[in-house]
Amino acid sequence: MTDFGNAGIEEQVYGKSGQFRRVLQRPWTIQLCHEPTISLYVGICRNFTVIEELTTGGVNRARIVDDKTGQLFDIEIWADKINVYPTTNEHQESSERLLKIFKRHGGGRLVI
Q1: Mean pLDDT confidence for 51-62
Q2: Quick check: 29 pLDDT over 90?
Q3: Which of 14, 28, 77, 83 is close enough to 60 for a disulfide, judged by CB 3.0 to 4.6 Å?
């Protein structure tokens, strides 16, 4: 089983009486050996459904859902790395599947 460090979500409560809450997403990252290719995007789309996507400033951002588990992720694909932001702390199985796709089609290594 891969260790994804402290990736997941953390709820923070703040304010004098704890009246404010915010949820922070902590990513896991894969450092790529080369720029992403079309095969990486095809690999993702075979196993995950892209709900929404946006490209700005050379960064591809998307919200994807694992077709098997229903787990949601927000991802950022840069020229040399991919940041994966799980939307819950129950992401191990889906993260393993996504990591396998990234390694197969993008090369690289997991960096925590």
Answers
A1: 92
A2: yes
A3: 77
